[in-house]
Design brief:
The protein is of the alpha/beta class. The chain has helices at residues 2-9, 25-44, 48-62, 67-75, 80-92, 101-109, 123-133, 160-169, 226-234; strands at residues 13-16, 114-119, 141-146, 176-180, 196-200, 218-220. It contains 9 helices and 6 strands.
Length: 252
């Protein structure tokens, strides 16, 4: 028993982001849009498929900020009440989402002392995703931190949840690796404290170039590459064979 605990103590703690790191966030978005389209098709007698397609087109053209507002405006149904109703339909739908294959394999395979998830966003929505993905009961995931449970100010780049992980594991930041996809917030608050950072190049931010302060220590294209990064770092060698993203403009 003692030897086993000693062996675990030498392994890193790995902390994953959720959206677009462990699963495809658009699969959740599409499910929410289907729920909204289905409801309004029933109310108006319209075609749910066409409404769903329109929601996706608005998202593509204008981003997330006003998708539901514009959708309701186009139908002549805009009101604060209907916006709240549509947001509720979106947030309360039952997600049909799956872990990326490389994420499922990594969770089972990685040589880690402990695995955590830290995610920003609406706490009910994020918890619904975690449950749908089975992360709340995954045998290797010790805990999932929803940053908004501790206040919006605790969202990344604030290191609050990561420091709590250090405290819980009785370890130091240098023994903790954060894997995320968003260079605007996932790494800039952690690097000055000594946390190791890995950027996963997929999802909406895959092509974004940022200043060095915002970028991760290394970048990978699939979680299958993470084993090699951990072996390099915690085996006493410098990271090799991993693409670094070039410097760019400091994000606003």
């Amino acid at each position: 028993m003692g030897d086993g605990l000693d062996a675990l103590a030498g392994l890193p703690v790995v902390v994953f982001d959720l959206d677009d790191t462990l699963y495809d966030e658009m699969s959740y978005v599409r499910g929410g849009f289907r729920a909204v389209a289905g409801y309004w098709a029933g109310v108006t007698g319209g075609d749910a498929g066409r409404m769903y397609a329109r929601l996706l087109r608005i998202l593509e053209e204008e981003g997330r900020g006003r998708v539901l507002d514009k959708f309701l405006e186009e139908m002549g149904r805009y009101s604060r009440k209907n916006v709240r109703l549509s947001v509720g339909l979106y947030r309360n739908h039952t997600p049909d989402i799956r872990l990326y294959p490389d994420a499922a394999a990594a969770l089972d395979r990685l040589p880690a002392r402990a695995i955590y998830v830290v995610t920003d966003g609406h706490k009910y929505v994020q918890w619904t995703k975690i449950r749908a993905l089975g992360l709340d009961r995954h045998p290797r995931v010790r805990r999932c931190f929803l940053t908004n449970r501790y206040g919006i100010r605790r969202q990344k780049p604030d290191p609050y949840c990561f420091l709590r992980i250090c405290q819980q594991e009785r370890t130091v930041p240098e023994q903790v690796v954060h894997v995320g996809d968003n260079p605007h917030k996932d790494f800039v608050g952690l690097k000055p404290l000594g946390f190791r950072t890995v950027r996963l190049l997929r999802g909406a931010y895959a092509g974004i170039r940022v200043a060095e302060a915002y970028d991760a220590d290394v970048s990978i294209r699939t979680l299958d590459e993470l084993d090699g990064v951990l072996a390099d770092w915690f085996g006493g060698r410098s990271p090799a064979g991993v693409r670094r993203v070039g410097k760019g403009v400091n994000p606003d």
